[in-house]
Request: fold
Amino acid sequence: MNPANYVLLSAVLFSIGAVGVLVRRNAIVVFMSVELMLNAANLAFVAFARMNGNLDGQTVAFFVMVVAAAEVVVGLAIIVTIFRTRRSASIDEPNLLKY
Amino acid sequence: MTEFTPPEINYYAIAPILIMFGAAIVSVLVEAFVPRRGRRPTQLVLVIGSIVAALAVTIDLRGTRLVTGAGAVAVDGPTLLLWAALLVISLLGALLMAERTIDPVGDSFAPRASALPGSDDEQQFARRGYLQTEVWPFLLFAITGMLVFVAANDLLIMFVALEVMSLPLYLLAGMARRRRLLSQEAALKYFILGAFSSAFFLYGAALLYGYSGSVGFVAISDALTAKPSEGTLVALGVALVIVGLLFKVSAVPFHQWTPDVYQGAPTSVTALMAATVKIAAFGALLRVLYVAVGGLRWDWTPMLWIIAALTMLVGSIVAISQTDVKRMLAYSSVAQAGFILIGVIAATPEGLASSLFYLIAYGFTTIGTFAVVSLVRNASGEATSMAAWAGLGRKSPLTAAVFSLFLLSLAGIPLTSGFVGKFAVFTAAIASGGTWLVIIGVVASIIAAFFYVRLIVLMYFAKPTEDTASVAIPSAFTTIALTTAAVLTIALGVFPQWLLDVLEQAGVFIR
Reply:
């Protein structure tokens, strides 16, 4: 199968993730959308690695997985703290800071 | 099966990074093994000692110009200069974070960030005088990330450094002792938007890798000259990478997080973050634009031109309507990002030198500004509402005078570092044909001068009321940081030549 199709798929996944961040209201779902964007980038890296015929892209994918895991730790910590304080994981409700 | 050859690494050239990273790991161990009472002094010695050691090595490295670690890390004049600036400013930021006499209840961080705001647990922790010493490992990791960020010579290292820098800062933003709901909200917003922007950066990096077959800046630059035809892939990749970095420098329209985070985060963290993240992100942006995609200059200049103009105007105009000092300073930092972008767009050695000068001047002035904000207090903590600043000049003349100095420097009044910085970027921009942008910049400076001067007028020409805040007497920590910032703000304004000479010797980015 033509690896270029995987790049297209990754672009579709990235767009779904980006739209998800913008329209969803639950912090956890927003966060999952960000992870979808990172993994779309991973897919693109691996597909391009195949097209370019070198291993750089696959190596990058490993690093990105580790970074994404670290991001999950920090992100969930922040979201859980907010949830415990406000009893809600909505990202619309924390609105004390504005204008 | 080909033989694996490990890359050559010049360990001494990256020693400042290694020192900070090692200190960060030791700092985590200190949290685990040192008894509670001894943690704060141990951490302070570790933080200050490691920053000073890294700074000494950086100074010893002057004149170094090499690429190491299989092309991943570039140690050249601009890198060393940015390292020195980041380390000195982080040291001042660390001193501000160590302050605990201006607030009678303790330092500026929550006794336990995990305790519910207003709960019995929280009160108990506060009564026992617990301190959240985990802020120190966070600080050290953030500094490590910044040092790598400005030295990164490929997109992978740059991405990892971006995250190592940002993740601790997201957490630090959420750990304020007072107004914890605001602080947590700031952390959430900073995190979501920061993660969103790094995803953009990463996808852009993937596209550039697809185009050039490598994530190294030099390889990308070579590919651009070798096969300039594949337009869409490159244009999209470059745009996404730049968007990811522009989020970090808070350029319009990617500035939405800035006011919220600057206002909600503990003021000592805001001071550190406002100064160092801007320096690190601009350092990385400059390297990407000048080294990796310098060949596409005519494609990214128009995009950045519009962003710079918008950033200056939106930042300055929205700042006028602010009633909170921290929030006003946040919008002012947005406007300042626009002025620095003028120098970036020039894309000449002078443009690079002037942007670096502006960044260094801005860094010291900003950390001083927020240091003063942390001193002005009333019974409920920091008094950031502008009404509380009315008549401060009569109540505490010295503090008001120092704050006015910083504001005048941000406004770009002669004999302060801000003026020299603005003058340098405007000159560099005119020399490379950016006259219209400079005209917009001058208009924006005039608008910006209005709200800086308005605050000075408020401090000196309004009568103190019973709402007027009082100024806390700081310990040596804040005093040293504030004095250094003030002295450098004047020194760089009156004798800018030595730094300009250093910048000239630093030269351009290594390829």
Observations:
- Chain B touches chain A through 42 residues (CB under 8 Å).
- The longest helix of chain B spans residues 180-212.
